[in-house]
Amino acid sequence: MEYYDYLLILFFGSLGAFMSGFLGVGGGMVYIPVADYFLSKAGMSGDMLVKGILANSLFTIFFSGSMSSYQQYKMGNFHPKEIIQTALPGMVSALITAWLIKNGTWYSKPRFNYVFAAMLLVIVVRMFGKKQVNKPIEKVTKPHQYSLTGMAAGVITSLSGLGGGIVMTPVFTDIMQLNIRKATSIANGVIPLFALALGIYNLLDQPKTYVSEWQFGYIVFPIVLPLIAATFLFAPYGVRVAQKTKPTVIRFVFATFASLMLIKLLYEIFTH
Question: How many CB atoms lie within 10 A of CB 267?
Answer without folding.
Answer: 10
